[in-house]
Amino acid sequence: MTGHDDIPKTLAGLPNSAPRYIGQPIERLEDPALLTGQTEFIDNVVLPRMLHCAILRSPHAHARIVSVDVSEAEKLPGVFAVITGEDAKRWSNPTMTVPPGWGTHCLATDKARFVGEPVAAVAAISRYVAEDALELITVEYETLPAVADARKALDADSPLLFEEHGHNVMLQKVFTWGEVDAAFANAAHVVQQTFRWNRLGANPLETFGVISQWDLIAGTLTCRGSFQAQGHYAMARAMVFNLPLNKVRFISQPHGGSFGGKGGARGTDITALLSRKAGGRPVKWIEDRMEYLAGGASQAWDRHYDAALALDADGKVTGFRVKLLDDLGATAEGWGAVSAAKPLSNFTGCYTIPAAQYDLTIVATNKLPGSPYRGMGPPPHNWVQEQLMDLAARKLGLDPTEIRRRNFIPPDAFPYTIASGNEYDSGDYRATLETVLEMADYPALRAEQARARAEGRYLGIGVVNTIEPGVFDWNAYAIVGQPGTGVPEGCTIGIDLFGKLTIRVGFSLEGQGQYTVAAQVLADWFKIDITDVRVVALDTLSAPPHFGPGGSRLGVALTGAVLGAAHRLTEKLIAVAAALFQTTPEHVELRDGMIGVKGMAEAQMPFQEVAQTMLARSDLLPPGVDPNPEATYVWTAAGRTPADEQGRAKSYLTAANACHVVLVEVDIETAQVQIKKYWIADDCGTRLNPANVEGQTQGGVAQGVGAALLEEAVYDEDAQLRTSTFMDYLLPTIYEVPMTEKRALCTPSPFTPLGAKGCGEGAMHTTPAAILCAINDALIPLGVQLFEIPASPQRIWTLLQRR
Amino acid sequence: MSVTRRIAMTVNGERHEADVEVRTTLVDFLRGDLGLTGTHVGCEHGVCGACTVLWNGRAVRSCIMLAVQADGAELKTVEGLADGATLHPIQQAFLEKHGLQCGFCTPGFMMSIYELLTRDSAPSEEDITDTLGGHICRCTGYQSIVEAVHLAVEKMRAT
Hints:
- By secondary structure, chain A is an alpha+beta fold.
- Chain A contains 20 helices and 29 strands.
- Chain A is 28% helix and 24% strand.
- In chain A, helix 15 runs parallel beside helix 16.
C-alpha cells in the first residue's frame, strides 16, 4: 500500500534515470486555450433556459429594512423570479462564520449592515431586463447610526452590528509564548510603534460568477462557477440549504485569477434561491466590478497594530509583542478570523525570538466583510515586524542588514520550532540575505544614497526578509473556530487503451500553472512525453477528496498526490506484469518507462502495454487481479498536530524564505514614491517549474507595490464606500511595477515531495514591507516616518508638512 | 426601453447582421450574440483593458462602446489572431515567455500589442510601456509580458 514513505523527496527517487521536465521552465499546457480565447470561463457558459440575475444592494451602511415591495418588478415582462430576505429566511440558514455566530442570510432580512449588502434579487431573461427590474423595487429603510472605525466599535455606546451579542467584539484572545514579560522587563532596548494597514484586496481581473440550478424534483443543487475551493463551498451550501452533501454538486470553471477570495457564497446562495423560485431554471450571476468592490471578496486586512521588540545590548531580539485590532467588517462570513490567525505560523519571522505575545481583538464594523487575500494574514504582520527591526537597528546604531544577521535562525538549527509553535523545515537565511546584497551591490547603494542626500534628493533602501509559510493546515485555525487537522488533496491517474495518461483533479485552472506541474511530475515518473498527459478537472461529487489552491499548498500537495497515485498505479502494473513474466511482484520494477524483471534488462515491456493488457486481454490476466489501470492517492501533510491552548501546532509544512532589496526615491515636492531598482533572492526549495515560480514572485511584487503605494478601500465616517470604481481604487500598472532582478537559492524541504516548498505568496509577504522600510529610510533626514499603508502621496505630503 | 436597430459588421473577416437593442454594449454583442467569448469583461468601465478589440484597426474598449457604434465597422478579436492551428507570433511569444497566468486579461493585451506591432515593427521601449500601460494584469507583474512583446517583435520581423 502506497504511503508517504513511497513518495520520493528528491529527483533521485524517481524511476527515471534522466528526468526531462521537473525543474525546467517548460511551456504551460494551459496556455494555448487561454491565448486563443477558448478557455471556458464561467461567463462563457450558457445553459438551456438560463436566466440572468441582478442584485439590489443597500445604499446604507446600517439600516433597518421596514419593507420591500417587489410587486412592480415582478410584473415586468421577462422577469421570472424576485426574492427578498423573506425568501432567504424561509429557504436557507445564515451562512457559516469564523468565529461562529456572526453571520447573516445571503439577503438582508431585518437590517442591512454594510453598503452593498444584497437586499433583493431578480432573475430575468437577460441581465439588462434584470437590472431594469431592480429599479422597480421599492425598499423602505430606517437608517441607523453606523460605525466605520474599529476603535469606535469597541466603545460601549457604539452602534451594534449584532444586537444579540451586546458588543462588537467577534474574538478576543491573548496568546503568550514564553517569558515575554520578563524579556521586556530585562531588555536593554525596547522599540515600540503603532501601525495602520488600510483595507485592500484581491481584485482578480475576472470577478466572481456562478450558474445555479435547483432541481425541484430530485432535490439537488448544481452550481457552476469560479470557486477557488469548490468542495469547501459545496459543503457550506449543504449547510445553508439543509441538503445532504451528495445532493450538492459544484463544478468549478477555470477562473481568471483568484488570490484568495474567489467563491462568492452570497451570489451562489442568491442564484440558488432564484432558481428554486423560478421553477428550477438555471440562473446566472456575473458580479460586475462595482459589485465586486462594494460587495464582493475585494477587501482584506483592515488593521491597527501596536507592536514592540525587546532587545539585549547586542541587538539580539529577546521578545516580540503584537497587539492587533482587526476590523473584519459587518460579518465573519467566509474565512473570517482565519486571516488574523495565520501569522501564528510565522510569527517571529526569520529570527530566533524566544518569547512572543499576540493580543488579538477582532471587531465588527459597518463595512464589507473581509475576505482572504494572497498571503492571508502575514503581509501586514511581516511589515510590522520588519519595520520594527529597522527601528531597532537605528536605535542601536546598526545597519539594518547587521541586526538581521545577528538574529537569523542558523542553518544548522532546522527543523526549528518558533515560539508560536510552528516548525520551519529548512533554510539558510543568511545565505539569502548575502546573495541579494551582492546582487544589489549594497555598499554602492548606500554610497549612491549618500551622494543623493548631498544633492537634496531622498533615496531610501529597504532590506527585508520573510518566511512564507507553505502548505497550510486547518490545525492552524482551530483557535479561531475552524477545527480540523490535515487538508487532503487527491488525484486519480489512469492509462487509457491507447496508452495515454489522464490526471483527474478536484480544482480548476486559476493561473498558477498547476496542471503543467502535475503533468511534468507524471511525465517524469513514467518517462513519457508531457504531451501524452492530460489533466482534467472533476466536480465535487466526482473528484477524490480535494481542496485546491490555497495557503501556498497546491504545488506541494498535488506533487504528493501525483507521485502517490503514480506509485500506486505502478504497483498495480507490476502485479500484472509479474504474472506475464511468470515471476512474483517483488522481482519486477518500473525503470525508465519499462516494466521489467529486476536484473534482466531484456525482460521488460513498455508500461503502457501492461495497461493495455489489463483493459483488453482479460484472458492473460491472473485470477483475482484488479484490471483497472487507474489509481487514486490522497496526499495530506504528515506529522501535523492539533493546536494547544496557546495555538501552538505544527501547522504549515514548509517555510520558504525571501529577501528583497529595493531602492526608492521620495520626491519631496510631489510626495511621489518612485521605485528605482528591485532585487530578490528567494529560496523555496526545489523549483518544479522555475518559470511558474518566477511568475508568482513577480506577480506578488506587483500586488505588493499596489498594497504599499496605491490600493485602499476608503470608507468615510458614515461607512460609505468612496472607492467604488477602478478610477478610485488604484491597481498597479506597468508604470508602477518594477522589473526585478531575481536569483534562486535552493534549500530543499526534507519533508515534502521532491523537496518543494509553497511559493505562491512569498513576494506579497515581503514587498509591502520592503517598500515601506525603504520609504522610511529615505525620510530619515527629514525627521518624519510613515507607519500607514498605502504610502500615498497625500499621506507623505501631509507628513512632510509637519516636519 | 428596448429600441432596436439593425447593424452589420465584419468580425474576423466574417460578415454579421443583427437586430440589437441600442443599449447593448459592443462586448455583450460580441460575446452574447456572436459567441466570441474570448473577449473578456474585467471592469465594465473602461479602465482595465481586458475587453480590448480592434475597431477599424484601432484598439478600443468594447465595454464602453455600444454595438450600434460598430455598425459598418471591421472588427478583430482574439479569435481572429491564430491562423488555423498556427498561433499568431504574439500568441506564440506569450506562450514561450510565460506572458500570462490566469489568461483573463491576455486577449486584451494581445489586441493592443497587435495594433502597436502592425503600426510599428520596431517600437521603442516607451511605446511598448505606453501600450501595456493601458491594461491591468493582476497576475504577472508585467515583466514576462514585456519579454513577450520583445519576442513578438523578433518573430514578426522574421515572418
